[in-house]
Amino acid sequence: MLGNFTYCNPTKIYFGKGAVDGLKEELPKYGKNVLLVYGGGSVKRNGIYDKVVAILKECGKEVFEDAGVMPNPTVEKLAEGVQRARAAKADLILAVGGGSVCDYAKAVSVSVNCDEDPWEKYYIRFEEPTCKIVPVGCVLTMVGTGSEMNGGSVITNRAQKLKIGHVFGEEVFPKFSCLDPEYTYTLPEYQMVAGFYDIMSHILEQYFSGTDDNTSDYLMEGLLRSLIHSARIAKEAPKNYEARSNIMWTATWALNTLVAKGKTTDWEVHMLGQAVGALTDATHGMTLAAVSMPYYRHILPYGLPKFKRYAVNVWGVDPAGKTDEQVAQEGLAAMESWMRGLGLVMNITDLGANEGMLDDLVKSTLIMQGGYKVLTPEEVRAIFKESL
Ligand code: NZQ
Ligand code: ZN
User: Fold this and answer.
1) In a structure prediction context, what are the per-residue pLDDT tens digits for the chain, which is 388 residues long?
2) For the whole model, what pTM was predicted?
3) Ligand 1, closest atom to CA 103?
4) 67: CA distance to ligand 2 center in Å?
5) Which residues contact 113 (CB under 8 A, 6 or more apart)?
6) Can you tell me the distance from the alpha carbon of 151 to that of 172, in angstroms, rounded to the nearest whole number?
7) Could you give the strand order of the β-sheet that contains 136-140, starting from the edge strand earlier in sequence?
């Protein structure tokens, strides 16, 4: 049964070729001071930075820069960003980059006027902001996280060996996001396919939970089929606009809160992956790929009807003459073969993890309650061992 919920997504999307021109409509709504946030330099190399700065100038903005946001942004960088935003008296934070830059911009936005330690308040105690929030806008250059249309913000604390996401409420969602699929063409293949798997994982985290008949599950099956199809095309022809644009839009819908409404969700793969990320600093999507098959094979017996449905409706497995278990396993085998075809990293050893890290990995993994099996720490350990 569809549970009760409220739904509101306040992010305005500009989508397609030339979507960055949406800035010209949005920027006049905010004050003069803009903190321009970006990563390690890809936006300078591919010309996106120049386009954005030209529009900012055209709109009469005073531009302050905060560069060098790293993949898996850290608490130390967050502290620096807060100082920069304060010094700039930022009226708007404009994130130009991937999920890391967008997540970081949101973290800065709720911390600029916060008197407490943001790590403790938002990422350890999971409190909501009680201060004035600086609005955020995004120009997306990497597809996967859905950060462009949600309140998620993941920060890493290397010293504490923790990588934690806070899912903020609507007031922290970006006010607007510009999504031009062509802006993602310069992504190295490794990042591109890692993003594809991040999308897949977001959908599966919400799909593999619950036993009820729920509209969201049908929506997710459609999104998954589109993603599987388009990812195969994009792997062979990365500049295929049709495939890349479909994937970009699928990524947004995979995690803009809609498909989670009225149903339970899991998110254990992300907890396992984030533990790997906290200890190795590996690319987010690859950490998920590396732990997924051992996790899903482990929980399959507890959620057999859904795994069977997944095999039939998403992977087109013919159930005739087979046991439910055989059908479900065939679905996972088809998924694994799709993953290998994309060139995803299928074990955590290749991401820099090793047997000696098992204790820390287990300690860093949050155990979720919404999946088909609430894991014990021993099971978490066994899954990591299997993933090595
Ligand atoms: O830093 P630069 O030089 O820009 O390079 C980046 C970075 O090295 C590069 N890149 C981005 N766009 C490019 C490009 N290179 C060439 N051309 C382009 N157009 O790609 C690298 C990775 O970027 P990053 O932003 O780290 O990737 P992603 O979008 O996957 O973001 C990952 C972060 O998002 C968090 C992850 O945990 C991780 O910290 N997540 C956020 C979520 C959310 N907000 O809801 C949910 C996700 O599950 C995820 O946890
Ligand atoms: Zn993710």
Assistant:
1) 888 999 999 999 999 999 999 999 999 999 999 999 999 999 999 999 999 999 999 999 999 999 999 999 999 999 999 999 999 999 999 999 999 999 999 999 999 999 999 999 999 999 999 999 999 999 999 999 999 999 999 999 999 999 999 999 999 999 999 999 999 999 999 999 999 999 999 999 999 999 999 999 999 999 999 999 999 999 999 999 999 999 999 999 999 999 999 999 999 999 999 999 999 999 999 999 999 999 999 999 999 999 999 999 999 999 999 999 999 999 999 999 999 999 999 999 999 999 999 999 999 999 999 999 999 999 999 999 999 9
2) 0.98
3) 44
4) 23
5) 131, 132, 133, 134
6) 6
7) 12-15, 176-179, 136-140, 92-97, 33-38, 62-66
Alpha helices, H only, 89-214: 99-109, 118, 189-207
Please report how the helices 324-342 and 304-313 are oriented relative to each other, as an axis angle in degrees rounded to 10: 60
Residues in the chain: 388
Distance CA 86, CA 93 (A): 11
Within 6 A (CB) of ligand 1 lie 39-43, 46, 71-72, 97-101, 103, 141-142, 144-147, 150, 152-154, 165, 183-184, 186-187, 191, 195, 198, 255, 270, 284-285
Ramachandran angles phi, psi of 347, nearest 5°: -150, 155
Q: Residues 165, 109, 95, CA angle at the centre, nearest 5°?
A: 85
Q: How many CB atoms lie within 10 A of CB 321?
A: 6
